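Input chain follows. Return structure tokens only.
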Amino acid sequence: MPSESTEELIRRLTEEARRSGRWDWEREAAARTGGLPVYATMGGILVIRPDGTVVWMLDDSGTVEEVREEGWRLVALTHAVQKYPELKSLAPVRPAGATECKACGGRGWVLLESVVCGDCSSTGWRG
């Protein structure tokens, strides 16, 4: 049996989140964006669509817009892989010569695993 493509996997996980997500915000974001919610901030929810596009669903307006900052795209991909290990093909690739992030000690987060490291965009490395 052929393995499930990343696009098919994201579609399946999105449907699961839409129907029975653990949190209301997950269900709403999956339904509104057609993508997989992977990280929530005070301002919005990062979502990965089946085509690989990363979008924000903004809390205050509910509007959806494509993520343009590379740092937030890395946060979305890193958290997608942490939350759904089967999406490991989305993991950012550490560049040759990259060094461990000094701000988070290579963890990718600060403050009890709840706040992404702004220095490394949650990757754990700089470079």
